[in-house]
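Hello K.,

You asked for the raw outputs rather than the summary table, so here they are, unedited. I folded two proteins back to back in the same session to keep the settings identical. This is the first:
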Amino acid sequence: MSALREPALLGEGAHIALVSPSGPLGGPHELEHAIESATSLGWRVSVGQHALARDGYFAGSDADRAQDLVAAMLDDDIDAIWCLRGGYGAMRLLPQVQDALDRTRGRVRPQALIGYSDITALHAAWQRAGLVSYHGPTARASLTAFTRAAFVSAVQEATPGVTPLVAPHTTCMVSGLATGKLAGGNLALVAALCGTPWAMDFRGAIVILEDIDEATYRIDRMLTQLRLAGAFDGCAGLAFGQFTNCLDTTSDGSRSLALVLQDVAEALHVPALRGIPVGHIEDQWTLPFGARATLDADAGTLAVHRVGPTSP
């Protein structure tokens, strides 16, 4: 995996586009909250035309969502795209997103992408284009002190060098150290992208996975699918985040989620950790996907290596 280009830090006056590429917002109050969060960080804000649209479980039609996202991507004055929420729908826009990324390949300042959950599909497109993106809170979220500090550290204050992140409540599944590029995201999306041009390349990567509202057997099935597809071949390490509202056992109580994750870690024979603060939780890290990091499974740490923005 060759080095990916990092976006510029989002300092005072950075221009941020707020868009809804996936599910709909709960109402204008969520958009107002997102605008307040962005302006509190010193950013200028532009809002996608269809940010408050609703079409069933989508934030407007595919055409409307793609229009807002692509318009932001093609605007040279936009420094970052902060997704308003997850849900479902981003992967339906991948052909249009890929076209826009191809058209902006020579841009001196690559745009930052921020979000998680369903935004995993867009992270895959960014990394396919050779760009670092931020796996972090969506714009509608209320930022706790922990989450805000991690967010600011990643997107505003990061300096070239190594930033150690310590996860206090983790379980070492396979001992050891691993260094590689950060990749992954929401397990359901990573599995759904298998067989598409945006399937994730985990060779030499530290794989980060999380999910929400999934039964144990479904998590088992998705992880097995990835293993059988060869998605994990050549990965350097594995770090499971939070599996929020996921039933801890199968219906008969015979197989725990912890055992399912442990089986995968041992089968891959790479340093592996469970329980980092990534996923559908209030206190979460912001991780620059595509940047290099060192995982210490025994110490429960992830040290992120930043090199700063690079020229095309």
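The second followed immediately with the same parameters:
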Amino acid sequence: MTQEHATQELLITPLHALHVEVGAKMVPFAGYDMPVQYALGVKKEHLHTREAAGLFDVSHMGQLRLHGEGAAAALETLVPVDVVDLAEGKQRYAFFTNEQGGILDDLMVANLGDHLFVVVNAACKDQDINHLQAHLPSGVELEIIDDRALLALQGPKAAEVLARLQPAVADMLFMDIQQVQIDGIDCIVSRSGYTGEDGYEISVPADQAEALARTLTAFEEVEWIGLGARDSLRLECGLCLYGHDLDETTTPVEASLLWAIQPVRRTGGAREGGFPGADIILSQIATKDVSRKRVGLVGQTKAPVREGTELFDADGAKIGLVTSGTAGPTAGIPVSMAYVRADLAAIGTEVFAEVRGKMLPMLVEKMPFVPQRYYRG
């Protein structure tokens, strides 16, 4: 198969031609032809996002709407998260679970008043849509949004830049969401993102996405950022990537995601449980009895420890696996995310990563490795 033929079979986002025009290096990702980096290169793109503002095309993600009076209650039967009490104009992190307590996908849920707005991962999009269609009651309508792109503007100067086009966004707090015009374009804007920095995710009509992207990148603070830097940015800030750090064999308790399960869904009362795998997940919460835990690891040498690297204890017994790893451009040291045997998950525990036949020492470290800078007012 030729490269040209392979590319033809990939889906493209509404910004594909613009990426090619500005010299992006395109790679297959989750069934799409996506920009992995631009002229700056991954490390400089990473550092630019931490210092100024980066623009990401995340239009490959799935955008959905749930309509109907019972939409929040219906969604609660599929996630261990409080959706019913989610205030209008607010967004929340959630995940679908299976009957074994494993995570089918992680997602964002927002209350836009007359409907719920849901964003799911690109690689799980079709599966998630099928899952919702199979389980939602007749009074709740699932609308698949296929005429909108999704941009993320991230970094300490993101708010200043976006407020030049729409001053109202400056007053938004972390996880606020609203329908607002940006440069005359009807957008859905949330103050959130996947970099650990302050910033926004902007759902924009597909036919106006290029115009908005050109307007944003015309500001000197803003550079295009590819998937390479998106990955190192999210990892430094301790954020999971589905299919790597989370999967359908991993429970939220093993994944150290207990913070995302609100007390109303796990500590008694009418809305405790009632989601797939609830018995297993609630039992793990109560007993703290899991065989493995997701942890952060910091390298004690300069060598990055990548996904798939096996981990051992001082006696040479295999005790875990690295699920994400980077050189840590901002952290200044190699950082990884891994699952290790639960008795070795305490902060400060030394483990050893086998890299090219050498046992490299690493320490279990608290995440995030770089402070999150979300704007909470």
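Residues 125-135 form the longest helix (11 residues).

Happy to rerun anything if the numbers look odd on your end.

Regards,
P.
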